[in-house]
């Protein structure tokens, strides 16, 4: 498998999951700004949409979208318990988390990264993020991870997008459960390996 990633982008989530999984893979840098691969070719020839992550399977087919890729990887190694089994109530809870992170948290950061976005729009995004982070903080009360006491692929995704609070100058101190959870996440060896591979630590 090949994971196309851009350092620090949402592709860090499947990068973490790959490290947690123990699956063999190759990580290929596909910077979102230049879209130039290490061999000098245009990343859009691999993924016409031009964004990351993109996972190329051994048969040459590809999978897009972070929330889908992390579930695919988890299902490849069920013994690792990175996601509950398909069809269970718990799996739908995981899918709810992944969809919430993708649509309510990840996408709320998008305007903050756009240089031409009006300040009023950025302020609205910050307000929405604050409300969502407050809710997540409540959900983490008494838990080690989003799904309870065990790590899941949803944790990898949320950790990745909450990393963006630092460059966006968003203070996490009002959310002590989120801060404590992020510390647990940052201490995981797989997280450290993925972040080191991307030059983030």
Largest sheet: 4 strands, mixed
CATH class of the largest domain: Mainly Alpha
Subunit organisation of the chains: single chain
Residue-averaged pLDDT:
96
Sketch the topology as an H/E string, one letter per element.
EHEEEHHHHHH
Which radius of gyration do the C-alpha atoms yield? 17 Å
Low-confidence spans: none
What would you call the structural class? alpha+beta
CATH topology of the largest domain: Glutathione S-transferase Yfyf (Class Pi), Chain A, domain 2
For the record, the count of structural domains works out to 2
The neighbouring-strand order within the major sheet is: 2-1-3-4
What does this structure look like?
The protein is an alpha+beta fold and 201 residues long. Helix content is 46%, strand content 7%. The protein is built from 7 helices and 4 strands. It has a 4-stranded mixed sheet, covered by helices on one side.
List keywords for this structure.
Glutathione S-transferase Yfyf (Class Pi), Chain A, domain 2; single chain; Glutathione transferase GstA; Glutaredoxin; transferase; globular; 201 residues; alpha+beta
